[in-house]
Automatic annotation (TrEMBL):
The lineage of its organism: Bacteria, Bacillati, Actinomycetota, Actinomycetes, Streptosporangiales. One of its GO terms (molecular function) is pyridoxal phosphate binding. It holds the Pfam family Pyridoxal_deC. This is Glutamate/tyrosine decarboxylase-like PLP-dependent enzyme. The modification N6-(pyridoxal phosphate)lysine is found at residue 294. GO terms for biological process: amino acid metabolic process; carboxylic acid metabolic process. It comes from Planomonospora venezuelensis. Gene3D superfamilies: Aspartate Aminotransferase, domain 1, Type I PLP-dependent aspartate aminotransferase-like (Major domain). InterPro entries: Aromatic_deC, PyrdxlP-dep_de-COase, PyrdxlP-dep_Trfase, PyrdxlP-dep_Trfase_major, PyrdxlP-dep_Trfase_small. SUPFAM superfamilies: PLP-dependent transferases (SSF53383). PANTHER family: GROUP II PYRIDOXAL-5-PHOSPHATE DECARBOXYLASE, MIP05841P.
């Protein structure tokens, strides 16, 4: 054994204690760390020839890299849709690394069974029926890609074409219909060989990001009975708008289509009594995307992909020519693009076991209330203008008199170190969006952000 490895093994308990102490200092200083930083690009240093051992590596990281990291785990990081890591999920994540299980096969451990239990809990959390079977993946992008891959196989099934064997080209042109598709959907269509050009945007309801069901029906009618994929949104990025899932499902009586619902964070509306109606019908979708490192507040990377057609999923992702992986069945190795991966389920399992449905419902209810509070504060500031009602957990707004300067405001917020909001464009207007999904955020944080916006107002 290399001497540095031998030394680290001999003092492993001490190294873990030092790492724990370092992590505690980072968490304790989260409120004082700049929420975001303007990146200063560093050229890569040469690969160490000898190395410095684990302690030396930690010291080098603390000096060279950690000071430039954002407080994205903190309560005023309101960019993208970023959760933090609850104490239980963080503990689960550490143990995931310690145990280092590859859960894709049930040959050597019960890791896949833990994933199945976590999936069953999540299915219940979101109110999905038992026929929706789920699999852990690395994020919403992979969840959307997996759901659309199953939908692609369904299209082939309707036409007697085994797409997994013959390839996407055998299908010919495919129509994918959506009102406000997330950018990851286009990426998935590219990867799946359907092409970004397969996406056909359908007109939206006036002043909304939700699809107009009548226009969707017209688009399906134009296909002349040809099967299609419909991507519905349960929570758009800019304004958290929801397609009317019941109205879309009703169209199945007249038109054949695979319904994939991108509910990356909108699925959590099911935990709020005042908003659960927004996801009514989710359980009747053919595939569903939910991103867990958003509102479940588990560390990156963690998402789940649900589908009612596990048989088609296995047809797409089966490792049928690898005898050492066992027969094609319900093991994750036959259900996702990855043959080997991290045991994503443990942090989610820890979070659900620790806080249950009610604990996570409290996070959702609090974040929704805080988003509403910030919306009220912004609406009261003459320098700003809300671009949409605060429907759930995102506040979308712009500068009232100079929306073209929204990017300057984002930079000023970053430079302050007080908060982070992401820039966007909504209905052609440059804007900012504040997304609430962190378990730590409080009213005091909202007031701090509101005061910052007031100070930075032109």
């Amino acid at each position: 054994m290399h001497p540095l490895l031998g030394d680290d093994l001999a003092r492993l308990p001490e190294l873990l204690d030092e790492t724990r102490a370092y992590a505690v200092r980072l968490l304790a200083g989260m409120d004082d760390r700049p929420v975001a930083r303007t990146p200063v690009r560093r050229p890569p240093s040469p690969l160490p020839l000898v190395g410095s051992g684990a302690k030396g590596a930690m010291e080098a990281f603390a000096e060279r890299w950690e000071p430039g990291f954002a407080a994205s785990a903190g309560p005023r990081y309101l960019g993208f849709v970023t959760g933090g890591a609850t104490p239980a999920s963080l503990a689960g994540d550490w143990l995931t690394g310690v145990l280092d299980q590859n859960p894709t096969s049930g040959i050597d451990s019960t890791a896949p069974d833990l994933e199945r239990e976590a999936v069953a809990w999540l299915r219940e959390l979101f109110g999905l029926p038992p026929e929706h079977e789920g699999t852990f993946v690395s994020g919403a992008t992979m969840s959307n890609a997996a759901g659309l891959a199953i939908g692609r196989e369904w299209l082939g099934e309707r036409r007697g074409i085994p797409v997994a064997e013959q390839g996407a080209a055998a299908l010919g042109p495919v129509a994918v219909l959506s009102g406000s598709p997330h950018s990851s959907v286009g990426k998935a269509l590219s990867v799946l060989g359907l092409g970004r050009s397969a996406m056909r945007r359908v007109d939206l309801l006036p002043g909304r990001e939700a699809v107009d069901p009548a226009r969707l029906a017209a688009a399906l009618e134009e296909l002349g009975g040809r099967p299609a994929i419909v991507v519905a949104n349960a929570g758009t990025v800019n304004t958290v708008d929801f397609d009317d899932l019941r109205a879309i499902i009703a169209l199945r009586e007249r038109y054949p289509f695979w319904l994939h619902v991108d509910a990356a964070f909108g699925a959590f509306a099911a935990l709020s009594p005042g908003h659960a109606h927004l996801v009514d019908g989710l359980g009747e979708a053919d595939s569903v995307c939910v991103d867990l490192h958003k509102w479940l507040n588990v560390p990156y990377s963690s998402a789940v992909q649900f589908t009612r057609r596990r048989d088609l999923q296995a047809r797409v992702f089966a490792n049928s020519a690898a005898a050492y992986l066992g027969p094609v069945g319900d093991d994750p190795v036959h259900l996702t693009p990855e043959n080997s991966r991290r045991l994503h389920a443990v942090p989610a399992w820890f979070a659900l076991a620790a806080y249950g449905r009610e604990g996570h419902a409290e996070i959702v209810r609090r974040d929704v209330a805080l988003a509403g509070l910030l919306g009220e504060r912004i609406a009261a500031l003459p320098a700003y203008r809300l671009l949409a009602p605060v429907r759930l957990n995102v506040v979308c707004f712009t500068l009232a008199d100079a929306p073209e300067r929204a990017g300057e405001l984002v930079n000023a917020i970053i430079e302050s170190g007080e908060a982070f909001l992401t820039p966007t464009v909504h209905d052609g207007v440059p804007a900012l969006r504040a997304a609430f999904s962190n378990w730590r955020t409080t009213e005091a944080d909202v007031e701090r952000v509101a005061d910052l916006l007031k100070r930075l107002a032109p």
